[in-house]
Design brief:
The complex is a heterodimer of chains A (124) and B (179). Chain A is mainly alpha-helical. Chain A is rod-shaped, with a radius of gyration of 31 Å. Helices cover 85% and strands 0% of the residues of chain A. The model of chain A has no long low-confidence stretch (mean pLDDT 91). Chain B has 179 residues and is an alpha+beta fold. Chain B folds into two domains: 42 residues; 124 residues, Immunoglobulins (Immunoglobulin-like, Sandwich), CATH 2.60.40.10. Chain B is built from two helices and eight strands; from the N terminus they run H-H-E-E-E-E-E-E-E-E. In chain B, a hairpin with a 4-residue loop joins strand 7 and strand 8. Chain B is elongated, with a radius of gyration of 30 Å. The chains are: A mainly alpha (124), B alpha+beta (179).
Chain lengths: 124, 179
């Protein structure tokens, strides 16, 4: 049961990370859960009561990780949406700059050149 | 103004039209900036060659100088090193199996023997772990093979799969030194 929940939690963390979420603390929690589950397996025959207790703790942590991973994924999806919008705006701004340079660049260049060299005199 | 026209005409005569050249440079710079922005957007988080690391560390915390002889029934410890460069969080499982010198294990085939120990760990991308593992071998015999196999959990297949990475140590298990 604990192992199954841990695997499910990992799937959720994997998806949260894929969406761009920060999963550092979730990975630490998963390691705690898997260590508890391993210890529970080790004590299964020698101390079943303690094993059940550890297994229950592992399940609680895995359940918590699942909930937090869902939140992290939602936050990451919203953040990704913003990043996409920023990317589109940046591309549009660049395209606008390109069109401006193409249309007015030469005129601005010569005007600048003329302003900078307006004190030049032509020798006869 | 006359000088300006003369300069422009001279440059044009040399095959170089400054306003067009500068415009082309500016447009080229804009295209490069656009390519960089697009690259950052689309390639964020991708890893060109993902891989995982598995190693068994000797007494100095380095690969090699492993013990070659252990007493049956006595504990001995080896440090296991696992590294994640897969570009994502990975769920690793290391199976430790015992075989003999003729046991077959390679990149494609895992050892067909039951595990004597299992170590599970989750690692973020570019994270490594060194984990001490204590073993006790009961069967006396020469050239016993302690095999370490790296497996990864696939969320798609919902199962662990052999990650084509393995390590082995050949041990002579002698009679117990305890009286």
């Amino acid at each position: 049961m604990a192992q199954s929940l841990i695997q499910q939690a990992f799937r959720e963390v994997n998806q949260a990370e894929g969406a761009g979420g920060n999963v550092t603390s979730l990975v630490s929690s998963l390691n705690v859960a898997v260590a508890l589950s391993s210890e529970a397996d080790r004590l299964q025959n020698s101390n079943p009561g303690r094993a059940a207790q550890l297994s229950s703790q592992a399940e609680a942590i895995a359940t918590q990780v699942i909930a937090e991973a869902l939140t992290a994924r939602e936050a990451a999806t919203a953040s990704r949406q913003v990043a996409t919008e920023v990317y589109v705006v940046e591309l549009l701004a660049l395209a606008g700059a390109g069109a401006f340079v193409y249309r007015y660049g030469p005129r601005i260049l010569w005007r600048l050149w003329y302003e900078l060299h307006s004190d030049w005199r032509v020798r006869g | 103004m006359e000088a300006l026209v003369r300069t422009a005409l001279r440059l044009e005569g040399q095959g170089l039209i400054p306003d067009r050249a500068v415009t082309a440079c500016a447009l080229g710079a804009i295209i490069i900036v656009g390519a960089i922005i697009s690259g950052q957007y689309f390639l964020a988080g991708t890893v060109p060659q993902p891989f995982s690391e598995l190693a068994v560390l000797g007494p100095n915390g380095k690969i090699g100088n492993y013990t070659s002889s252990v007493a049956a029934g006595q504990n001995f410890t080896l440090d296991l090193y696992v590294g994640n460069h897969e570009g994502q969080v990975t769920y690793y499982r290391v199976y430790v199996k015992l075989g003999n010198i003729s046991s077959v294990v390679d990149r494609n085939v895992s050892l067909s023997a039951p595990p004597i120990a299992v170590y599970d760990v989750f690692l973020k991308d570019n994270q490594t772990v060194v984990h001490p593992m204590t073993f006790q071998l009961s069967r006396v015999g020469a050239e016993q093979k302690l095999v370490f196999e790296l497996w990864t959990f696939s969320p798609v297949k919902d199962a662990f799969a052999y990650a084509h990475s393995w390590n082995q140590i050949i041990l002579n298990v002698t009679g117990s030194s305890q009286p």
